[in-house]
Amino acid sequence: MEIERQVTGTTRPGYTVAESENAQLKYLHGNNLEETSFLDGSGDPRYFLYIREEDKGILAVIGLSHLVESVHHYDISGEKPSYSHPLLSRANAYGNFRSYNGRSVDELMDYVNNNIRHLRFAPDREQERNCFLDVHSEYQSKTQQDLARFGDAKKLYTSEEGEPDIIPEFTDLMIPVKAGQGCIRACIYCDEKRKKFRLYPAEKIRRNIGIARDWWNKHHPHRPITHENELFINTPDILYFELLHSAEQKQGRSLGAFEERLYRTGIRGVPSAGEVVRLMREGFPGTLEEHFGKMYFFVGTPTTLEVPLSSLEDICKGVLGRPGAGANRPYIGFESLDDPTSEFLNKDETAAQKKEALDKLHKAGFPKVKIIMQLGMTGRGFYDKKGDFNDSLEAAAGSAETLAGMLGKMDNVQISVNRVLDPCHQRKIAQGMIIPFEDPEEVQEHVEVFRKTLFERWHKTDRPSVEDDYIVALENHQI
Ligand code: SF4
């Protein structure tokens, strides 16, 4: 009997890549993973390593980067195996491992890696074998090498002040490249405003592309960078490049509001946003082979409204001049579509302006826009400047309803969950402006109401794509 069935009681369609007496390594395509509850329905393909021992079954989930993502225990003592509990997990590529049963992370990873070492790989799986078994001479073990890889990645997402940058959905296949830092806006919940504002010149971006490429090649020598890798342009708003570039072209005359603000920073000689995108594709040519690899970036509502449509089209088309061959996955932080809440958060654009920005992104050719919403940041409610009380649960429902009316079919919504615990909110609580949750878990009710309202109203016909693990990733990451 297949070891997969002995461990989990079932088998799913996929390839057996390697096996031994007591272990089986399978590659499962994303479509076969949806019902796997501990993967939260993530449809990305993965490797599953099943290990059968006398009294227990172990399942290790391993990403396409050949790094352990999670380890699970199955009870195989009864007639039918049953899922028991997780042993190890991590939410993202920050390396924020969590062990559940007191055994150390290294011990559990060593256990998995040692089992992989004893597998016989199928003859046509030579490249995977090399990826799974590769250990550099400077590391004693695969585990040590993997852990070093997460530590080494910090240079790709750390500010010049040593603070972490935000990367939503940081996956093991993602390669972030730092292009700038800090923000000229000042949303009350965001740390970017505290960093020194920088937009890097082309030469420095090229250098950072080289650093990111070297990091990947050092830790994945047998896995070339391909369209499966995801690129992330690490800067709070790529349109700052576009607007400052155009302000420079206009030599400081007849500037729009953001052009003016950016021009006043005194920074000069930055590439346009389209040029930044082209630098990225040229630096990672493998990401354009077969299909167009995903390239993520942040934009803001007012900057999207200020740039000409042709600038957005340029970002989307990139080097090949075809939609998607440039940067193809914009993130836009709407946070709330309740105008008093947005104003309170110092995000002073209206829901109508946010809709206009989203429509413009679709028109520019981006089929899928990722929208970030914040829940819980205003606790149970807040008092606005006029002294009126605003109920946060009602605002969450209203936001979901408004959002449902503006989303495209392919768009994706990410909910960032807050529990008003950070110092900025604590200050507002002390000033009596925010009524905090009595129990931080109260925020879950807001998440539920938001999701339910959105799903009921959204015209989307296929599976709704709403993810609320984004902030979990941020909360758990250890820098
Ligand atoms: S616009 Fe974005 S990066 Fe800038 S302060 Fe607001 S949330 Fe932070």
Q: What ions, cofactors and ligands are bound? A: iron/sulfur cluster
Per the CATH scheme, the topology name of the largest domain is: pyruvate-formate lyase- activating enzyme
CATH 2nd-level architecture of the largest domain? Alpha-Beta Horseshoe
**CATH level 1 class label of the largest domain:** Alpha Beta
From the alpha carbons, calculate the radius of gyration and give it in angstroms: 24 Å
Could you describe the 3D structure shown?
With 479 residues, the protein is an alpha/beta fold. The protein has 2 domains: 3-137, no CATH class; 149-476, tm_1862 like domain (pyruvate-formate lyase- activating enzyme, Alpha-Beta Horseshoe), CATH 3.80.30. It has 16 helices and 20 strands. The protein has helices spanning 3-8, 105-117, 126-133, 142-153, 202-219, 239-249, 257-263, 273-283, 301-306, 309-317, 339-344, 351-363, 392-404, 423-430, 443-457, 470-476, and strands spanning 15-19, 23-28, 46-52, 56-62, 68-75, 82-89, 98-99, 120-121, 174-178, 180-181, 198-199, 230-234, 295-299, 329-335, 370-375, 381-383, 389-391, 412-417, 434-435, 466-467. The strands form 4 sheets. The protein has an 8-stranded antiparallel β-sheet with strand order 7-6-5-4-3-2-1-8. Strand 16 (381-383) and strand 17 form a beta hairpin. Helix 6 (239-249) packs across helix 7, helix 8 packs parallel to helix 10 and helix 13 packs parallel to helix 15 (443-457). The chain starts with a helix and ends with a helix. Bound molecules: iron/sulfur cluster (SF4).
